[in-house]
Design a protein that fits this description.
Keywords: Membrane, Transmembrane, Transmembrane helix. It comes from Mariniflexile fucanivorans. This is Putative membrane protein SpoIIM required for sporulation. Helix 1 runs parallel beside helix 3 (54-70) and helix 8 (155-175) packs parallel to helix 10. This protein has two domains: 3-72, no CATH class; 96-319, no CATH class. It has helices at residues 3-22, 29-49, 54-70, 74-93, 97-120, 124-129, 131-142, 155-175, 182-204, 212-240, 247-279, 288-319. The protein starts with a helix and ends with a helix. The protein has twelve helices and no strands.
Length: 320
């Protein structure tokens, strides 16, 4: 769609919304939220197709004013958590799905490097995972319990410790983006190589199928680390490629957007921590259909929320 057609199609609702905001008119909270969702949708569209236009600057300004108005509305504040995950974040994240794709590709390259290196050099896995972990795992394999490490400790203690550690890793992956995205790429590479070496280590011992136990929680855990990496790249790239903004303004916006992506991952890390603390320890005793069912559902949950749902929601609001 040409920019002129885009403006003509949406100008009326923008002016109505702008007039209500500037005149301090009382707006029904539900209507305000609806206007805001449409506005952020238009803003995301303009960011994609008209990145250097005055239309984008205007929508940015209007969205900022609308945000302030919405978050001082009491009724909306009660529902803002639900609204964030149900509407605001998916619509917002639609414009960053390409960054997520690049992040995923970087991670998969690292996984392949880790796998190939371990296949060709038995000592590589010790370099990556450490002698202590490798020796302990070999002992467990010889005892016939390769996943014994996941059975140790209390369920609640494991759940809390694992969840906190995973969130810490996600924050590091995001924060390292401040080093012009290179820091985040390093975190993605180190985790990807570790994963590739780990999986190939089990393959070399002929028990690759046992890793299904790990994927019970690892499906969400690894996926969300990639998403946190996406947040880091959003922040780092905002400084490298400021577009029409000054670098300071672009970086501030990128940091806020990246932080919003990290916040969206917290519920998923809690789910992964719960699975690892309470379910993974029973993975070897599970019927295979239940085990792979959990893995499939976990993968679908991530793909749906971060890929399918934002596209579907964006298309829904465009058609209205």
């Amino acid at each position: 769609m040409r920019e002129a057609s885009f403006v003509k199609q949406n100008k009326e609702k923008w002016l109505v919304f702008e007039s209500a905001l500037h005149n301090n008119a009382k707006i029904n909270p539900d209507d305000l939220a609806s206007y805001y969702i449409h506005l952020t949708n238009d803003l995301a569209y303009a960011q994609t197709y008209y990145p250097e236009s005055k239309t984008l600057l205007y929508l940015n300004s209007l969205a900022s004013e609308a945000h302030q108005k919405i978050y001082i509305t009491k009724r909306e504040s009660k529902n803002k958590i639900i609204s964030f995950w149900k509407y605001e974040f998916p619509l917002f994240f639609r414009s960053y799905q390409k960054t997520l794709l690049y992040t995923f590709l970087i991670f998969m390259v690292a996984v392949c490097i880790g796998a190939i290196s371990t296949l060709n050099d038995d000592s590589f896995v010790r370099l990556i995972l450490g002698d202590g972990y490798v020796n302990m795992t070999i002992e467990n394999i010889e005892k016939g319990e390769p996943m014994a490490v996941y059975k140790s400790g209390s369920s609640i203690g494991s759940f809390l410790g694992i969840t906190i550690n995973n969130i810490r890793v996600a924050i590091i992956a995001f924060a390292f983006g401040v080093f012009f995205s290179v820091g985040t790429i390093y975190i993605l590479f180190s985790n990807g190589i570790m994963l590739g070496a780990f999986i190939t280590f089990f393959y070399n011992y002929g028990i690759l199928e046992k890793t299904s136990t790990i994927w019970l929680h690892g499906t969400i855990e690894i996926s969300v680390i990639v998403i946190a990496g996406c947040a880091g790249l959003v922040m780092g790239n905002s400084f490298l490629f400021p577009k029409t903004y000054s670098r300071r303004v672009a970086f501030t916006k990128g940091a806020k957007d990246g932080l919003k992506i990290v916040v969206s991952t917290i519920p998923f890390f809690i789910i992964a921590g719960f699975i690892e603390g309470f379910i993974t320890r029973y993975g070897e005793q599970m019927p295979w259909i239940l085990s792979y069912g959990i893995i499939a559902c976990s993968l679908f949950l991530i793909v749906f929320y971060y890929v399918i749902y934002p596209i579907k929601l964006n298309n829904t609001f465009q058609s209205e």
